[in-house]
């Protein structure tokens, strides 16, 4: 970790006012991304990953949302304080985003080429000809065969994997310093997922683009991330270098996730060890550790307040007051499952 | 689970009977054009000439990429979609020869659990009536009190509070709804259940709960499963044997251990190598087989071997001639590839040995 981070999110809290009450979608998220680094953001459905990403892009509608606290420093400037015009210059040019479902972001009545050229003409002031030539280059870069021919196709003429490539080509068109990829492969098959992950890794090697990769798949983050943030109920539970997170996890939730999924590289287990109970309702969350109701190791103190991230090793933070290790977890898991 | 696995070992020496037998099954969906006069202009070959058996008490995993025909296969076995050609036997009954009415009576033996716990439950019915409906239709209960008792017992079986009978589906989480769907499928005490991606729509932290539940129920009620999924790690965990499908065809089918340790078809190998593994060091060292291109359309499948357009080892013959579906090791390891070689040859995931 040297130099200034490219992006630094500090104590971000984004709440939604709904008829049923306040949804604390993001409730105290902090992390940073160095230039050229890949950060994996993992967590299950509804834990606040997309709201975090959309907050960086300033694309969360206010209302119903309310940004209650926090700052998002990008190259030292707080994005939350930028004017809408200032933000438009950042969006797409310095920070680009790709979404889970590319079809919702591509305009069905415009050709693929027009859509890529639009950003090039707007942000980089290219002429139509230059933009078209560059668009073909970009499509080739992301592995669309016979790009010069396919550029005049419409989105529905492309498969899901090809559309995701187009999204990546569009995101790269202005050489952003940060690419936010929100579940870029969740809708895709494993063989196509492997192609897209390979492509993201290549961008990083060739252009030193920093990447924030959002997924619920522990396997996907393992392969491509330098650092990982594990989220639960709007809060980070654990943050560590990728290798450390998998070899020496310290949060019972992280361990629970790793234990409950069958893995191809291990001997087949007779029985999986599930995490008991259900994810919490983000409305009216009590001020306790959000994982405590499902945690085997919870003690009274876990329900006395919301644990903050604390440093347990160099660059390794955990929001848990207990000292739980992988070995203790495995031991307890065997005891409860038999 | 243990008993089911042992059951399968014995089937290989020919002791057990197949519960379900699929013989040259085809499901082609017509593509028509024209508004008044519907002309048939082609067909989606969703399932194209597949044959396999499902042994009593086993879990047969069916994997393959989106659109390859997994759900259609499941639906065609249950006669929810009538096959275009081919036969399906349940025990010694030929389901494909039954009339609609006869099939309705068979239905209690054959059930399905759907992928989407949100859309598969009628939002206007209470949980009690959702689970109780099949019991009434098939006259499995004689009065209201008995119905209520059965429903509550089913709720308990799938790990839900019996007190929930009067609630509506929207009051439940995805995992709970999936349990309701399982309770409904079990209500008639079926012998055979098609589980069509039963955990894909669930939160990661509750998937293991449902997998364990399905395993417990299998043991308790001696169920036979066709388990459809695209997650190869989950399929390895739950299945006794695994079938791999590509573009309407079966490309490989083998005992779990053998399929994962020595896959014979290049597509199976590519699928296995693409599964992300939650171990950064291993992931970085791993050799991936990255397939080029996309899955072709089932309207116009490639000639010869359907996989040849993406296959890393394809030769001229592959585009010309469809490979035979053959038993390569003489032990029921079926594969359709011109270049598949017999023998064990484990693939290495972890450095040297195949620690699968
Ligand atoms: N416009 C909105 N109004 C009300 N609540 C919202 C809104 N958008 C998001 N939320 C809530 O905020 C929480 C976080 O949502 P978010 O989309 O960030 O989850 P996620 O981690 O991306 O989940 P997934 O993996 O399903 O994409 C959820 O509980 C969601 O219901
Ligand atoms: N009723 C139908 N009419 C026409 N085509 C259909 C119909 N049902 C399925 N298909 C087509 O048949 C093919 C196989 O579909 P199927 O749903 O069986 O795939 P699958 O393997 O279950 O995919 P997934 O993993 O996405 O669920 C697809 O090309 C699909 O578009
Ligand atoms: Mg999301
Ligand atoms: Mg399907």
Q: How large a portion of the residues of chain B is in β-strands, by DSSP E?
A: 15-25%
Given the helix and strand composition of chain B, which structural class is it? alpha/beta
Query: How far apart, in Å, are the first and last alpha carbons of chain B?
Result: 19 Å
Number of helices of chain A: 12
Poorly predicted regions of chain A: none
Task: Give, in spatial order, the strands making up the sheet with the most strands of chain B.
Answer: 6-7-8-3-9-10-12-11
Mean pLDDT of chain A: 89
Describe this structure in words.
The complex is a heterodimer of chains A (338) and B (356). Chain A has twelve helices and twelve strands. Chain A is an alpha/beta fold. In chain A, helix 4 packs across helix 5 and helix 5 crosses helix 7. Chain A is globular. The N terminus and C terminus of chain B are likely disordered. By secondary structure, chain B is an alpha/beta fold. In chain B, strand 1 and strand 2 form a beta hairpin. Chain B is globular. Chains A and B meet through helix 7, helix 8, helix 9, helix 10 and helix 11 of A and helix 7, helix 8, helix 10 and helix 11 of B. The structure holds adenosine-5'-triphosphate (2 copies) and magnesium ion (2 copies). One magnesium ion binds next to helix 2 of chain B.
């Amino acid at each position: 970790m040297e130099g200034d981070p490219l992006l630094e999110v500090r104590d971000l809290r984004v709440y939604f006012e709904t008829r049923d009450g306040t949804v604390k979608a993001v409730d105290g998220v902090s992390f940073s991304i160095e230039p050229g680094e890949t950060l994996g953001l993992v967590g299950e459905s509804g834990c606040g990953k997309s709201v975090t990403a959309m907050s960086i892009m300033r694309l969360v509608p206010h209302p119903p949302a309310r940004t209650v606290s926090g700052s998002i420093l990008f190259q030292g400037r707080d994005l939350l304080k930028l004017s809408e015009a200032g933000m438009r210059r950042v969006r797409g040019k310095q920070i680009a985003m790709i979404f889970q479902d590319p079809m919702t972001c591509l305009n069905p009545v415009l050709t693929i080429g027009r859509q890529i050229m639009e950003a090039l003409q707007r942000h980089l002031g290219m002429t139509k000809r230059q933009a078209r030539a560059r668009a073909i280059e970009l499509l080739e870069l992301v592995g669309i065969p016979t790009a010069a021919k396919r550029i005049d196709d419409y989105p529905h003429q492309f498969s899901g994997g090809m559309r995701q490539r187009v999204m990546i080509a569009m995101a790269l068109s202005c050489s952003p310093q940060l690419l936010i990829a929100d579940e870029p492969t969740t809708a895709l098959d494993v063989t196509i997922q492997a192609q897209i992950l390979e492509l993201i890794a290549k961008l990083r090697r060739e252009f030193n683009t920093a990447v924030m990769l959002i997924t619920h798949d522990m396997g996907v983050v393992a392969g491509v991330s330098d650092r990982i943030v594990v989220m639960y109920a709007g809060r980070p539970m654990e943050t560590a270098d990728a290798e450390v997170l998998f070899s020496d996890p310290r949060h019972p939730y992280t361990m629970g996730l790793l234990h409950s999924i069958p893995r191809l590289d291990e001997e087949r287990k007779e029985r999986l060890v599930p995490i008991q109970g259900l994810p919490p309702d983000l409305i009216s969350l009590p001020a306790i550790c959000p994982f405590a109701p499902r945690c085997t190791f919870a003690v009274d103190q876990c329900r006395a307040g919301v644990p903050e991230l604390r440093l347990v090793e160099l660059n390794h933070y955990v929001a848990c007051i207990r000292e739980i290790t992988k070995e203790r977890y495995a031991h307890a898991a065997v005891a409860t499952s038999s | 689970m243990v008993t089911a696995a042992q059951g399968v070992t014995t089937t290989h020496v020919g002791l057990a009977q197949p519960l379900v037998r699929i013989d040259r099954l085809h499901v082609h969906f017509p593509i028509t054009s024209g508004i008044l006069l519907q002309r048939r202009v082609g067909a989606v070959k969703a399932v194209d000439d597949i044959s396999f058996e499902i042994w009593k008490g086993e879990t047969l995993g069916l994997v393959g990429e989106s659109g390859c025909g997994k759900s259609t296969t499941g639906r065609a076995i249950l006669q929810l979609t009538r096959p275009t050609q081919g036969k399906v036997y349940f025990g010694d009954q030929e389901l494909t020869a039954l009339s609609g009415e006869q099939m309705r009576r068979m239905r209690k033996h054959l059930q399905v659990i759907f992928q989407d716990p949100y859309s598969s439950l009628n939002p206007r019915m209470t949980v009690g009536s959702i689970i109780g409906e099949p019991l009434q239709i098939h006259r499995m209960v004689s009065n209201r009190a008995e119905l209520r008792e059965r429903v509550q017992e089913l709720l308990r079986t799938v790990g839900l509070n019996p007190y929930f009978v009067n609630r509506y589906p929207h009051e439940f989480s995805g995992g709970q709804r999936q349990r309701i769907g399982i309770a409904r499928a079990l209500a008639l005490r079926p012998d055979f259940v098609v589980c069509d991606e039963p955990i894909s729509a669930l939160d990661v932290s509750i998937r293991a709960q449902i997998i364990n539940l399905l395993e417990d129920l299998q043991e308790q009620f001696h169920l036979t499963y066709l388990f459809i999924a695209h997650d190869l790690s989950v399929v390895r965990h739950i299945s006794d044997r695994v079938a791999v499908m590509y573009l309407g065809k079966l490309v490989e089918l083998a005992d779990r251990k053998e399929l994962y340790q020595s896959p014979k078809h290049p597509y199976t190998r590519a699928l296995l190598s693409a599964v992300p593994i939650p171990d950064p060091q291993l992931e970085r060292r791993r050799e991936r087989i990255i397939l080029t291109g996309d899955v072709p359309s089932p309207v116009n499948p490639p000639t010869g071997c359907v996989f040849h357009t993406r296959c890393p080892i394809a030769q001229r013959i592959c585009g010309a001639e469809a490979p035979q579906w053959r038993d390569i090791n003489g032990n029921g390891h079926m594969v359709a590839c011109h270049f598949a070689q017999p023998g064990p040859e484990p693939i290495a995931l972890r450095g040297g040995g195949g620690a699968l």
